[in-house]
Amino acid sequence: MNPPRSVLITGGNRGIGRAIAEAFLAEGDHVAVTTRSGGVPTGALELKADVTDPVALDAAFAAAEEAHGPVEVLVANAGITADTLLLRMSDDDWSSVIDTNLTGSFRLARRAAKSMMRQRRGRIIFISSVVGMLGSPGQVNYAASKAGLVGMARSLARELGPRSITANVVAPGYVETDMTAVLTDEQKAGIKSQVPLGRYADPAEVAGAVVWLASPASAYVTGAIIPVDGGLGMGH
């Protein structure tokens, strides 16, 4: 049994983020979760913070460090969508998604890297999306933000690798969450017909990939994209 680690997850009150938090708690780790609306899993430290607010984010990090010690595993999961076709997409539709999904992740990584470099170890894991590689009509902003995480992770992998810090990306496909529950049966059937495994993912299956990337077994994996998409994005 490995000693418990200090883990920080953003957007961990529902969906994929909550499943990731539950998985690390099951490993016996000390888990802190940022949320805007509350309701984190039992056993996790709840931190109210919006990733677009640098002051709140820094305060959340400080609270996590005070409670659990320097953050050893960062999971940048918080994300939003503002879907619409390009010609209808406003500047705010663009900037709000980029600020949350991409700039928020940058701020998190920069803050976490400070203590990780001093410790000479750490795991940074970004939650991207198959859409970041495949593209999706009506999601120019979201796809750009999620693709940007790949470039960020690979740059960090090169920059921080000499200090034994890894940076990787998990790219889920369609997952059974509140965000996909709003789709019509016809839309769901159309999506499943494109997925070789013929179903959505369970959030726990995404969490499994994240926990593995944080484990000793993946110590030599960095700059990688781990798809958890049922084969939807093969070749990308």
UniProtKB/TrEMBL annotation:
Transmembrane segments: none annotated. Keywords: Oxidoreductase. SMART domains: PKS_KR. One of its GO terms (biological process) is fatty acid elongation. PROSITE patterns: ADH_SHORT. Signal peptide: none annotated. Belongs to the short-chain dehydrogenases/reductases (SDR) family. PANTHER family: 3-OXOACYL-[ACYL-CARRIER-PROTEIN] REDUCTASE, CHLOROPLASTIC (PTHR42760:SF40), SHORT-CHAIN DEHYDROGENASES/REDUCTASES FAMILY MEMBER (PTHR42760). This is 3-oxoacyl-ACP reductase FabG.
